[in-house]
Amino acid sequence: MASLGQQGGDESDDGMDEFMDRFRTEKYKNAFNESNWEEEFDTIPMFMKKVPDVIDPMKHPELACIQAIIHDDDRSPEEQAQGLKDEGNEYFKEKNYKKAIVSYSEGLKRNCADSELNAVLYTNRAAAHYHLGNMRSALKDSVSANKMKPNHLKALLRGAQCCMELRKYGDAQQWCDEGLRIHPADKKLQELRSTADKQKREAERDARKAKLREKKLRGQKEALLAAIKERGVKLMRITKPVREEEDGEGDEGQVAAGMGELDGLMSQEATGSCVFLDDSGTLHWPVLFLYPEHCQTDFISAFCETSNLLDHLAVMFGDELPPWDADRKYLPHNLQLFFEDAESERLHQVDVTAPLLKVLQHSRCTVKDGSPSFIVLVTGSSYSKQFLSGKKIHWLK
């Protein structure tokens, strides 16, 4: 027997020597890879820094087993809800609020009989919604939590915070008042109540100021419209092309302006200016000059209705002519101005010595989109003759 024992021991020793010899020359096949051992380490559930979005049992069998234990249908609804709450809390700690919401929602679906646990699930889900900016959903969950557990401090605080974010300061006050009846010494509720009072007063003050500004602006608009109507100046709004569903054809329509459509006639969006009435009751118009020969324009932001066009031309084409007028043809006394009849597309020559108001009062003149515009041509030039050829023109007599 001794010889047998000795023989077995010798075999064992011989095997170990052989194993050690192989160990020195061959790498262990099941070891972590030296180049990406950290990534492989992260596949072990205990050491995972982040849970995968989708758990594949083939890739993560250990994690799948843990998940199966958590969601084991054999457990009571209370146990399942508790497990899902804990799972949601872990996601919440990782700031993965979307996954936390899913876990809390699954916990609520278990319909367990523990009202306090359900209240916590609602409160925690409200917190996750709050951090995602879903204030209405967070407020709804706070209401549900408060119904299940009326003295739940976190639900009361969250409800007040949601109302503050939604600018419902009166509701925030009610949440705080309800909470302070139960928790009169809570500093967070006291601070929230004070902030809600202050911001409510500020909101009411701002609303009053906005209402006064709106009233003042409405009065100014009404006075402006009345002044334009009194002068007999016609306004027109050029609408955007409208596609007909039946035939697919579009057309640019013209809509006559009513008293309530002044906002649509302002040229402020396009030019930065609009017609206004000064303290003396005089209108000032944004006026556009078009030079089709050179594809150029000039813009006067506040053209007084009592000023004539020639005075402005003398300024624009005075000692310093524009760089695009290489031939120095655009001299004040050598220019013709026209406006276009919106209905007939006939050109009407303008008396440049007449005040702007008289021009705008012409029976065929219409102010489009709040800004009078005039075509400027050089009298007798070849381009002028070509441009005016074939056009219907009403010449000055």
Automatic annotation (TrEMBL):
Pfam families: Wheel. Signal peptide: none annotated. One of its GO terms (molecular function) is Hsp90 protein binding. Keywords: Repeat, TPR repeat. SMART domains: TPR. The lineage of its organism: Eukaryota, Metazoa, Chordata, Craniata, Vertebrata. Residues 190-209 have a biased composition (Basic and acidic residues). Residues 278-385 form the Cns1/TTC4 wheel domain. Residues 190-210 are annotated as: Disordered. Belongs to the TTC4 family. GO terms for biological process: protein folding. GO terms for cellular component: cytosol; nucleus. It comes from the Eukaryota. This is Tetratricopeptide repeat protein 4. The gene is ttc4.
